[in-house]
Hints:
There is one protein chain. By secondary structure, this protein is α/β, with parallel strands linked by helices. The protein has two domains: 2-60 and 144-293, Sandwich (Immunoglobulin-like), CATH 2.60.40.420; 61-100 and 108-139, no CATH class. The protein has helices spanning 19-29, 61-94, 110-139, 182-190, 280-293, and strands spanning 44-46, 146-153, 156-161, 166-170, 206-209, 213-220, 225-229, 234-238, 244-249, 254-259, 272-278. The strands form three sheets. Strands 4-3-2-6-9 form a five-stranded mixed β-sheet.
Amino acid sequence: MIFNMLGALCPRVGKPGFAAAAAMSVWAAGARAQSTVDLGELEIVGAPVPRGTGFQPAATELARDLQWLDGMLFVIIAIITLFVTALLGWVIYRYNETSNPTPARFTHNSPLEVTWTVVPIVILIFIGAFSLPVLFKQQIIPEGDVHIKVTGRQWFWSYEYTDEDIYFDSYMIGYGMGNLNDEIRVMLADAGYSDDEFLLATDNPVVVPVGAVVVMTVTSSDVIHAWTVPAFGVKQDGVPGRLAQLWFEAEREGIYFGQCSELCGKDHAYMPITVKVVSPEAYEAWLEQARIDFPA
């Protein structure tokens, strides 16, 4: 495909096959551009936890809607499962050969057949009445306060603040440097992270203001990627040659982590996402410096 000729070495074009080697050499040289703005101490809000099985704290209305819908569906599924299990147990007990040596020979029961047809239809209509509005809320993109174009590349992200002439690449801290080691620990500490954020933190995070509607246009330069931040309730595939959009409005300042969620090659696991939600004043200060550090 022609899009496979687009790449990850340069900000706009290149050969994706050389991405990993290029990233390693860049990290080794320590020459990557990074913002010099201090955004202050931010709480890590959206991050995985050891042995966690639930959702991350919802930081947007979209995430709250999705988590509520998941809880409602779980209740419905649990009731159906318990009912079917109990029904099977009762049938096994009541109609086994010992309890019912002479089985009935009928083959149809119209009231029962109508019931097991109508009840599932009612359940599906009930689910649809709640799930479709949530889906439409995700897919109907509002007018944005901040517009960002994100491009997935093997194996990092590129971000362009289209209204601000800002462009930068975002790599996992320590990408291409092996497992957690002393050098990576120093890099994490310099960026304000601990060892726990290894494989999650990036050198250049996305920075957005709290309470602003952020519209992201997602695409890819090589293979299919997916920009995903669980705490925001957003996930959008980036497809070469196509533009797709997502939106969110973060309600709480803090640091949120995500990950490419579409298998995209050998370094798919090393393609994290970091979003810092800051105050409007801190965001304006970051913009001012980012126009210098990351000119488009």
